[in-house]
Amino acid sequence: MPRETPAIGFPRTYIDRVPAQWREPAAGLAVGWLLLIACFARDWAAMFDQWWNISTYTHVLLVPPIIGWLVWQRWPQLREMTPIGWRIGLWLFAGAAILWVLGAFSGFNLIRQAAAVAMLGASALAILGPKVGRALMFPLAYMAFLVPFGDELVPALQMITAEMVILLTRLSAIPAVIDGVFIDTSAGLFEVAEACSGVKFLIAMIAFGVLAAHVCFLSWKRRIAFLVLAIAAPILANGVRAWATIYVAQFKGAEYATGFDHIVYGWFFFALVIALVIVLGWHFFDRPPGAPMIDGEAILASPLLDRWSRRSVGIRPALVIMGLAVLGATSWAMAAERLSARLPEQLFLPDVAGWQRADYIPQAPWEPRASGAEHRLLGRYVNAQGETVDVFYALYSGQSEGREAGGFGEGALMPQSEWSWLSPGPELGASKADRLLARGQIERVAFTWYRSGGTLTGSNARLKLANTLDRLLLRSRPTAVLILSSEKTGTLKPEASVARFQSAIGPVDVWMDRVGAIR
Q: Which of 2, 213, 355, 412 has the most CB atoms around its CB within 10 Å?
């Protein structure tokens, strides 16, 4: 009689615990997710780098285990369901793949990363079907918090915080003058910098508020009210914290107040805010303890889900179709990545009527950033009235990762420099205007234009739209950036100087094409 050989590998008892109807779909989903993460490894690596190294997104490291916990809470109902391949899920997957292509074409990393996450959710629907998808709707939707978003909110939050601070400061009988995000008091000049915008805590609170609203409430009105509280509390608290720093500085000095701010901000104040939000919402929690997260019987009996379930597809064909969609998306992106327009070997800043070239000697070092541009020009013009205008021009043969004219940290405001963003600047044509400040007293106004094909704009979004269209059509066109800027000196207004220079050069689009020898 042959002797029994012990099984090698994954214990059979664990497999036996999985219902038979779940084994192939679960294996297919696991394989599909591993392949998707491998295919879009660059996007996942970029996201993980932000989770691990940028404090604003450290909370995202908790999102994967939270999603696992949410799925586990639903497992008693899920094991009674039968997963099926779903054609509509394949259409959703195709949409996510197209979104990734658009993100790659526009150089918009946030869209690429959101699409990479969306492909995981869509593949789950394509393999597991509408009923299981309905049961997992919230965990799949919560995957959106894997995407590191929020930097776009910083300027608005800076302005909101500054307005709150000046209001509280004046109510405290402390004389103060506000200019953009800078507040001048007798104790010194205070800046509501990016780190003081409160975006870090706001993003974490939104993720917490959405989770708590789902887990702790059944009423949608209560869920919405709690989420509004979770969003408003950190914004208001951040304004109070910034005001407290200025208030303490009036009596203890700016250096003491800064140290006090770091301790309070990092350990006590916002921990108290979280506790306060929970305490205020606790009384209104209406989900009974131990109540199931979903109504499995209602999902199984749903006529709508029954009709959707008829649009089924085999799991293996679904995996093949998704693989072809990924292959098509990545191949298209690789072809567009190679696009490169022909550029002249050398560029020059031309003469301008009524203005003369002068030595470029700024009061504080200023040189806009244009990573990946093949040509960069920086010069100064002066007129008979003594007005000076600094001209920066950059020309790209194409737009891709690492060479994005409107990318984060590119343009007039140089990261990690003496310059800080002060406020939006005055309007001048189609440009984007920014007021900058260095050393607390040197003010500069900068107007930015982007030029690609027939598009002239100061909007980063419009530039990316034009670049995306070029890549969709596999059309190579150069992209140019023009920044006209002037420092405030004496009674001369920098915006007026730039306006006069812009009038002297004529139509901006024609002048940019002339400098870059584009047409």
A: 412
